[in-house]
Amino acid sequence: MEKEPKIVVLDGYTLNPGDLSWAPLEALGKLAVYERTSAAEAAGRALDADILLVNKVRLDAALLDRLPNLKCVCVLATGFNNIDTGKAKSRDIPVCNVKGYGSASVAQHVFAMMLAMVNGIADHNRSVQAGGWAAQPDFCYTLFPVTELAGKTLGIYGLGQIGRQVARLGLAFDMEVIAVHKHPERDAMDGVAFVDLEALFSRSDFLTLHAPLTAENEGLVNTARLSTMKPSARLINTSRGGLIREGDLKAALLSGKIAGAALDVLSAEPPPADHILMGVDNCLITPHMAWASLEARRRLLEETVENVKAFLAGNARNNVAV
Length: 322
Fold this sequence. Notes:
- The chain is α/β, with parallel strands linked by helices.
- The protein folds into two domains: 6-101 and 294-312, NAD(P)-binding Rossmann-like Domain (Rossmann fold, 3-Layer(aba) Sandwich), CATH 3.40.50.720; 103-285, NAD(P)-binding Rossmann-like Domain (Rossmann fold), CATH 3.40.50.720.
- The protein has eleven helices and twelve strands.
- The protein has helices spanning 23-26, 39-46, 61-65, 85-90, 103-119, 121-129, 161-172, 197-203, 223-226, 246-255, 294-312; strands spanning 6-9, 30-33, 51-54, 72-75, 95-96, 153-157, 176-180, 192-194, 206-209, 234-237, 260-263, 283-285.
- Helix 5 crosses helix 7.
- The two termini are 22 Å apart.
């Protein structure tokens, strides 16, 4: 580009709440960073941008039509369903995302959730702090039966980069790992058996979701499929809330159709205070934080800088608007 490009970050806070540096982006153009941007503010803030960086801000066709200077969109994430990529493609605007930056972080969170459910570390700590251990006649106690992961079946829906990292950890725990995946021949993995969707639900002791949300899999987890799971099974979702029909899940949890769930994502984020799954004792909920380790956020920022550099050099990388 002949002139210094204007780079605008519309919602930078979740990526960088202050523990990373925007300096590498500042070196590439005139940078403006907004911590958060509402729908009403988006057009005004993005109006003069040559390069727009967004995480969750929605860039629909109507908004893109109001941005005549826009030449590139960089998504501060892997998912890009908040961008009208068809409209971007029609205007030859590349939409560049970042893959793989959070695989280790998300997989770690999946196992933190699994271990929280089977070992109950927080529950036992609270009991001890409340005097439960001091009052015991024995040298040890448990609040509920603790089970091992070894020998259990780990089911993975989606064996992409995150799913594969989850599989590696499962194998390290001596679990049997099964998976449903769009490309089993291409993405075969030692120790992982590919099964159909029915077997995934019926055989899994732990079922973890790792696929993007599409029209085909929205509401994948519903009453019919939950009814085929083991009563001892547990569901984990660190992908997208829309994969689960939350009312159906609540009913399954309260009726004992499955033993528990651990969710890092919900259908609305942030959720309303009276969200349907709030207060369900056998449902753990964390605030969409699985991706957000310092190391993962640093990789995301570094790869975004490389996306901007590549675009400025005339060779857009990681373009999903094709």
